[in-house]
């Protein structure tokens, strides 16, 4: 595995690879790897001749009072894990090169970013789409792989790729969980032991939603009431939102008909975690 730090070097390698008729698979990340990241890399390994993973803690997707400074970083651990899983290139650009002083361009996807996390993190998704578009230009992937764990992010990037007539395929992969159900996240490292126990109510509440949907419940209100009840019975959990949305438009639904996502965000102390369940009506 090679570590590339400069945009120039990364672009040169990407265009040579494309010129040779090879498929580039790309997994963008912010590091502190866990099995969730590795599952995307394995899929990338399967799909591409050249597998590129970027590791960049993108400052513009964090709000002013969020955890950019404290975001967990473990370059050596990440380097080893990426190498073991068969990554060809680990691309680690510098913030100064990605955002030089005259940077003044943002990419904003409208409707699908307004609801859910967009309400409490109003500039988050424009930070994500701006950096992902930059990374796509630099890495020139044929396929880019994202996790369903960040479901709104996946839908937003798919919308961007579609609306800008981009050539890249944006693929989604299922959420990887700990054996007790907690969705893996780099931010789980923040949890104190009592919070780690209480956080299981997130998964439990989504399982309840799934059970109700499987039994045929189609009133969103009834499901939301149960989900919120489970979360509220846990004193260490503070709900940011729980919503049931159309899985494609991300608009709230009352009467469930097509595919839906039950999405939630909650605080445990200062740690904000998200999780979701995609329920497809076949
Ligand atoms: P991050 O480093 O948190 O920005 O995540 C990088 C990529 O890994 C994103 O596409 C995430 O959706 C994905 N990801 C993070 N956690 C998980 C998980 N538990 N399961 C599957 N994908 C994940």
Write the layout of secondary structure elements.
Blueprint: E1 2-4, H1 7-19, E2 24-29, H2 35-47, E3 50-55, H3 75-85, E4 89-91, H4 95-98, H5 117-120, H6 124-139, E5 143-147, H7 151-163, E6 169-173, H8 193-198, H9 200-214, H10 220-232, E7 237-246, E8 260-268, E9 271-279
Parallel strand pairs: 1-4, 2-3, 2-5, 3-4, 5-6
Antiparallel strand pairs: 7-8, 8-9
Helix pairs in contact: 6-7, 9-10
Bound molecules: adenosine monophosphate (AMP).
Protein architecture, described:
The protein is 38% helix and 20% strand. With 282 residues, it is an alpha/beta fold. A six-stranded parallel β-sheet has the order 1-4-3-2-5-6, sandwiched between helices. A three-stranded antiparallel β-sheet has the order 7-8-9, covered by helices on one side. It binds adenosine monophosphate. Adenosine monophosphate binds at residues 29-30, 36-37, 39-40, 146-147, 149-150, 173, 175-176, 183-186.
